[in-house]
Amino acid sequence: MHESPQSAQPGISKTRRLLGRAPRTRSVIAATGLLVICAAPFASARTGGPLREGVRNGTTTSETQVISNIASSTGPTGGYSTRQSNLSPSGGGAVYGCRSAVGGSAAVPRAQNPCIRANNLSTGFAFEFNASDGAVAGLITVGAGGEATKPFITNATGVATGLNADRVDGKHSEDITKDAVAVSQALKPFAQVNDGGAASATRGVPANGVSNPAGSGTYSIVFTGDLSACALQATITGGAPGMITVTPTVAPDKATTTVDVRTWNGNNMDADRGFHLSANC
Question: I need a surface site. Which of 18, 134, 226, 232 has the fewest CB within 10 A?
């Protein structure tokens, strides 16, 4: 068998001889090579490969960094390193999940690394949330909720502009005001007593807590609670001169304090006199 003059030519490679055989052969070889080159990036979900649409990509073991140098923009787009948007009326823009455990201290618990961190290295905003048409901007939930959970922790103690804290410690502002007034009043019990031993106005005195038990110039006023740490003040009422003394006695169970009041006229004689008695606690 004799070789053709073309195949026998010295210095011509086997590949060139193959490609030179026929147009159809050259086309098949070129198409095969193009298929291998184009299909290689999509052949597996290995890390380090291109981002694949519509499927789960491989699990990475190092950060994927997107670094940009883009100026801000007032237009509808531009000014951000990446942009994610979902055109579906029922869909979201992005989901970020992690499994970060709690670290930090008991006073200031902190995740080792939070699932999302926005860190502005300059003086502008670190984040911005906007609900263009909704009545509620967002939702923060913590586990099952309740008194043991907190929506967030901050070291900023200034007034949040536009924030309306309608409830504090589970109470409305009206309730807080009422409680504050009640506490203040409870620290200032008093009794207004006429010369016959009848009370015209009292605070912190139970029913039938005012009496005239032992004749002229003697009165007994029972206050609720322990007044041993309070300062008592009594004043004779009316234009005539007179004197008054007070002697408090706290009950053994400290549930009440009985104040014995003695009054005299201007001649140092026992006499029924009207008076005001108050305690500053």
Answer: 134
Q: Is the CA virtual torsion 132, 134, 137, 140 positive or negative?
A: negative
pLDDT, tens digit, 9 for 90 and up, residues 240-279 = 999 999 999 999 999 999 999 999 999 999 999 999 999 9
Burial 184-194 (b: 16+ CB within 10 A, else e): eeeeebbbbbe
Domain encompassing residue 31: 1-39
Number of structural domains the chain divides into:
2
Residue 261's nearest CA partner among 207, 187, 205 is 205
235 in a structural domain = yes
> pTM for the full model?
0.45
Q: How far apart are CA 222 and CA 263, in angstroms?
A: 17
What would the two tokens of residue 173 be? 């502002």
106: how many CB neighbours lie within 10 A of its CB?
5
CATH of the domain at 239: 2.60.40
> How far apart are the C-alpha atoms of 136 and 131, rounded to whole Å?
7
